[in-house]
Predict the structure.
Amino acid sequence: MSRTRLRREHILALIRGGEEDVEVLARQLDVSPSTIRRDLAVMRDEGAVMRTYGGAVLAQIQPEEALATRETENRAAKEAIARAAAALIADGDSVLLDAGSTVGALGHLLSSRRLTVVTGNLPLLPVLAHGPAIELIVLGGAVRSTSMGVVGPLAEQTLRRITVDKAFLGCDGLVAGRGLCEASAQQTALKELMAEQAAEVFVLADATKLGRASQPYWAPLPRHWSLVTDAVATDDQIAPFARSGVRVIRAPRGDAN
């Protein structure tokens, strides 16, 4: 993580702890108030904070939706993204599938493929377990009923002993240069480890999630990763990712119909 990004993470931690004044933040981090103001301007544009007179407060956090609700939202876009992601997988690959509705849509397309699949996405287990050529490895851990995925030390311990060719991650929000956000620290810790254990990392995110900082916990992404999004994503939404060196794949518009 760069020094600038690390400083901004410290600013967020201080604001979360109740420090909101620019002068106080500057003294705490031993930098100039103008540096803090520049950081806060960037963080405001990223959706992480809201500026106030003389300082900033955290942006409003959106409540986490249950998986059943997410599966009905932007369904066509998610299915198009899933098809585009499936085309990136070759027979014989080892793949890591995150929790979430978009990655779940991808998992449903893989049951007839010859693959090794590592996942803690519980709704996918009966789908993939019956795949005739699927070697299925299940991460243990604590179950989050909201996402129906596993998290925690047991899942992390298992994952540290496995490497894969490709990891497919979901997210609540995705900001260029910052990473992806989720509702809990356990989720982001596991996603960060997933990225570390994969030779290639793909984040599946429809247009509504690009540039959105809707949750308080963040997972940085590796230097080289790929974004798979839908055709509705605008050039303005994609530009910050492309500028930072991210490979951007748009699912064909015809697939979203």
